[in-house]
Specification:
This protein is α/β, with parallel strands linked by helices. The protein is built from 18 helices and 29 strands. Strand 12, helix 7 and strand 13 form a beta-alpha-beta unit. The protein is flat. It binds S-adenosyl-L-homocysteine. The site of S-adenosyl-L-homocysteine has 25 residues, from helix 16, strand 25 and strand 27.
């Protein structure tokens, strides 16, 4: 029975709501003065939910918990819910009393936050349980050591792009320390507590005769991995020749193992040098090797972990062969847009990627903007303005070394920023993840009103990377096409004539006194400033490098001080 105790009207409301959400015969509401109610409930129930402050609850519970014959094993599970129903705190009897689990149920029923402070539940491998890797072993003990700052040994840290780890976790910690093993091998009995993170890195090439039974393939795959000291959890995929794309035993074995099968053309397989070619598959499917060649191709590896091995069914000829290769570790490059400046315009996904990385590459001013979001122990490669190419190249180089790298940029990192120079350097040997950001043009538009309600373009007025003739041609095209235009990099001390020139070109095609122009500076930053003016009255002196300038089309208007571009031309008439 769960006893519900409340002292105020709000508490009684919440108690009623909880009683309705739980099973009807599961709860009992205790009325009357709280001290009295709690004592009765304590005697009659195995769990209590107190709609009281933790302090009041502790004071009332203390003598009951201290009573003779009570100990940690006999404590009821007690959960406290605050008056505003924000939190369900597991106060006493977290494990054996079931308070941790009860806090989660109460929180779900009341739309509150469960608060659990017992160590083994609160501990999660910092950053390592969100990687999508299978985890086994003594998670609580190793997590505890990580949080205690004790030396923790990391084995196989170069087998997967891990996030930054606390400095007490390292390859140099003495043997016998709590250990984290990253890889695809079978767990091996170590001296200290160990956890295993399994990388999906094994590709098993499979050759199968027509009609090869599922069991024969499965048994062969499993025995081959086990004999080589490799874990089934380390499987990435099976690989074979496309003539076997419909082979039922092969498909069923893959389904049972929970991995996909990749099929290669016979000619692709025939081109791979293998240790054990043979005539049988050459005659049957046109390549001297299926298992070995498919394992190597599927893994993108040059060497086999396990060469070809045949099944050994009793009393008949073998119908399956396998070979195993390991995919090389692949680095990860996240290209992360941080938005225009304000913290609440940094997306959730950008935050996640910043914490997923072990190295951050970016302009020093952007690194400063998000430094507090980074994981302790993260490596920072910050460079000053103008070192774009070096930054892009160094981010790619670090990812090629197998690291988890985040390359950061303001706004969207693909807009006049680092994504394109980086991806121009990157090959298919790394994984790339893009995180979109709120651009300066979008942030400015929200501030100005609705200037981008119809077709629009962005044009950078910086002639550092682009000859002025090209820029001018684009401005002219935008003017003729009646597009709303947002100018990036509009004006600096050294580049002061480009903006007036561009505006003059637009004025040839728009009515200057009625065409709205928005100036937005340092959008979403502490010195944010904006203004809606017109093509005729804009003062270029109000524009600098921290500004974007958005010019309306022939239908845009200023309405109640806001810059509005109609969604269509027809409804405006
Ligand atoms: N990747 C960025 C653009 C970088 S180019 C994006 O997606 O927005 C740099 C130019 O962007 C600056 O010269 C300025 O024109 C504009 N800009 C960047 N942040 C801005 C902000 N917070 N407010 C106004 N303009 C900004």
């Amino acid at each position: 029975m769960i006893g519900l105790i409340a002292a105020t009207a709000a508490g009684r409301q919440a108690a009623t709501q909880l009683a309705e959400a739980l099973r009807p015969d599961e709860t009992r509401v205790y009325e009357g003065p709280v001290g009295e109610a709690l004592r009765r409930a304590y005697g009659e129930c195995s769990q209590l939910v107190c709609f009281l402050a933790t302090g009041a609850t502790v004071r009332l519970l203390a003598p009951l918990l201290a009573a003779e014959g009570s100990d940690k094993h006999s404590d009821p599970g007690v959960v406290c819910v605050d008056e505003a129903r924000r939190f369900a705190v597991a106060l006493v009897g977290g494990h054996e009393g079931g308070a941790n689990a009860l806090a989660a149920r109460v929180a779900a029923a009341l739309d509150a936050q469960p608060v659990v402070t017992t160590a083994t539940d609160a501990i999660g491998l910092p950053g390592l349980d969100t990687l999508g890797l299978a985890v086994t072993g003594e998670v609580a003990a190793v997590s505890r050591a990580i949080l205690d700052g004790a030396p923790v040994r990391l084995l196989g840290g170069d087998r997967f792009p891990l996030p930054a780890l606390p400095t007490n976790v390292s390859g140099d910690a003495p043997a016998g320390s709590p250990t984290i093993v990253v890889g695809d091998e079978l767990p091996d009995s170590q001296a200290g507590p160990t956890i295993h993170l399994f990388t999906p890195s094994l590709v098993v090439g499979v050759g199968a005769s027509k009609g090869a039974p599922t069991d024969e393939i499965l048994t062969l795959v499993r025995a081959t991995l086990a004999d080589a000291g490799l874990s089934e959890r380390g499987l990435h995929s099976l690989a074979s020749v496309d003539a076997k794309a419909e082979e039922p035993g092969l498909l069923a074995a893959a389904a049972e193992l929970g991995v996909p099968v990749r099929f290669f053309r016979a000619a692709e397989l025939a081109a791979v040098a293998v240790p054990n070619p043979s005539d049988a598959p050459l005659d049957a499917v046109g390549t001297p090797s299926v298992a070995e060649a498919a394992a190597l191709l599927g893994a993108g590896a040059h060497e086999l972990m396990v060469p070809k091995r045949k099944s050994a069914p009793e009393g008949r000829a073998a119908m399956a062969t396998v070979a195993v290769a390991r995919r090389p570790a692949r680095g990860r490059l996240a290209v992360v847009g941080l938005g225009p400046g304000a913290r609440d315009l940094v997306t959730e996904r950008a935050r996640t990627e910043l914490r997923r990385a072990s190295v951050i590459v970016g302009l020093d001013q952007y690194v400063d903007q998000i430094r507090d979001l980074l994981r302790p122990g993260v490596r920072i490669e910050a460079t000053g303005l103008g070192a774009e190419e070096e930054r892009a190249r160094s981010a790619v180089r670090l990812a090629q070394q197998g690291l988890a790298v985040a390359l950061i940029g303001s706004g969207d990192a693909g807009v006049y920023a680092m994504a394109s120079p980086a991806l121009a350097e990157a090959g298919d040997d790394i994984d790339v993840v893009g995180v979109p950001g709120v651009t300066a043009a979008m942030a400015a538009a929200s501030l100005l009103g609705a200037p981008l309600g119809h077709d629009h373009v962005s044009i950078s007025l910086s002639d550092l990377h682009t000859p002025w003739e090209v820029i001018e041609r684009r401005v002219r095209a935008a003017a003729e096409a009646d597009l709303v235009v947002t100018f990036y990099n509009p004006r600096s001390r050294a580049r002061d004539w480009q903006l007036p020139k561009a505006l003059a070109i637009l004025s040839e095609h728009r009515d200057a006194p009625t065409t709205p122009v928005g100036i937005a500076r340092s959008v979403s930053r502490p010195d944010e400033w904006h203004k809606v003016t017109t093509l005729a009255t804009l003062d270029p002196a109000e524009v600098d490098m921290f500004t974007v300038v958005t010019v309306g089309n022939t239908a845009s208007r200023e309405i109640a001080g806001r810059f509005v571009t109609p969604r269509g031309y027809r409804w405006q008439e």
